[in-house]
Write a structure and sequence with these properties.
Elements (H helix, E strand, L loop, with lengths): L1 H19 L4 H13 L5 E8 L2 E8 L1 H4 L13 H11 L10 E6 L2 E5 L3
């Protein structure tokens, strides 16, 4: 029982530290997930800046709805765009929440970095 209390206190302390750290990627992931939850889109357009190169592509919306960990996999990118993505960034490249500049669907901006 003592272990449970100590464990709960440690988890609570870590959770508060994450909430206080506004630069933590968790906050970006939550914003992206919330933006995606507000739409019924099957695919969305994503613009990223990776290695000082800006690139836009179409990807499956479901891949942006959940927790990505530290990166989003390129396998959800539409095939033609995925080939261009791999040419630019390499075959094993993926993209992170920090690299996403904008997510759009039908000319509507769902998410924009810094807003």
């Amino acid at each position: 029982m003592l272990f449970d209390f100590l464990y709960h206190d440690a988890v609570l302390k870590e959770y508060r530290a994450i909430l206080a750290d506004t630069k933590n990627p968790v906050h970006l992931i939550k914003k992206i997930s919330a933006a995606m939850a507000a739409t019924s889109a099957k695919t969305v357009n994503v613009t990223i800046r990776k290695n000082e190169t800006e690139f836009s592509f179409k990807t499956e919306a479901f891949s942006l709805r959940g927790d990505c960990g530290s990166h989003y996999n390129s396998w959800s990118i539409v095939a033609a765009d995925r080939r261009k993505f791999e040419e630019l960034f390499g075959s094993s490249a993926d993209y992170t929440p920090e690299e996403i500049l904008r997510i759009t669907y039908a000319r509507n901006v769902l998410y924009e970095a810094g807003k």
